[in-house]
Design goal:
Layout: H1 16-32, E1 39-44, H2 51-59, E2 65-69, H3 77-82, H4 97-109, E3 113-119, E4 124-132, E5 138-143, E6 162-167, H5 170-183, H6 188-209, E7 215-218
Parallel strand pairs: 1-5, 1-6, 2-5, 6-7
Antiparallel strand pairs: 3-4
Length: 220
């Protein structure tokens, strides 16, 4: 395991010193792990906060670490439409939380686990698209609601060996999320409407309703 240099691999998201604190906490959890099973790290934060980038940067520094996104458990668009939730896709109630919890439980103790992957191009979750094998001993599980203190999300808490929260000002999130929709081909008005109508309410829910993490990675 190498020394984490400031801003190494994490773009403009998180300061290197804060990332080093997270790395040190994970390293300590690995050192005290007693018995079989993987070390599970929850990396949570609002949409647009840089969870994936942060997780990948940490994984690059930890032997046997892989990133596992939560978004393979999006409910299908047809299910969301039938429930009147399609416009809210990405909100806490639009995920298969029970299925996600079952996956996390299996990842804790089973050598090989097949998991779904979200295909953003087709906007669907693909079952059986990835295999987590026995060489993956540290799992950096990233998602918006991993620390949300609401049922049924709060039932995930016992799984985590380390929890990391990414804290980003709402104004920064608004700019990033609007740009995300611009990058998907929407015009300025439509992009801002998508960001403000769904993404930012979800972000506020994460900020207001999540449990305190072991490590907070703050951005100015």
């Amino acid at each position: 395991m190498g020394v984490f240099e400031p801003d190494a691999g994490c773009g403009n998201f998180v300061k290197g010193q804060d990332m080093k604190q997270a790395l040190d906490r994970i390293t300590a959890a690995i050192a005290v792990k007693d018995g079989p099973g993987r070390v599970l790290v929850a990396i949570a934060g609002p949409p647009g906060s840089g969870k994936s980038t942060t997780a990948e940067a940490l994984a690059a520094q930890i032997a046997g670490a892989v990133v596992v996104p939560m978004d393979g458990f999006h409910l299908d668009n047809a299910v969301l439409a039938a429930r009147g939730l399609l416009a809210r896709k990405g909100a806490p109630e639009t995920f298969d939380v029970a299925g996600f919890a079952t996956m996390v439980s299996r990842l804790r103790g089973q050598d090989e686990v097949t998991i779904p992957v979200f295909d953003r191009t087709r906007d669907i979750a693909v079952a059986g698209a990835r295999v987590i094998g026995p060489d993956a001993q540290v799992l950096l599980i990233e998602g918006n609601y991993l620390l949300l203190d609401e049922a049924p999300w709060r039932d995930l808490a016992p799984f985590w060996d380390v929890t990391i929260a990414i804290d980003v000002p709402i104004a920064v999130l608004e700019a990033r999320l609007t740009q995300r929709w611009l990058d998907h081909g929407l015009d300025e008005a439509a992009a801002r409407a998508r960001a403000m109508g769904n993404d930012i309410p979800n972000a506020r829910r994460v900020v207001a309703g999540s449990s305190r993490a072991d490590i907070a990675l703050r951005q100015d």
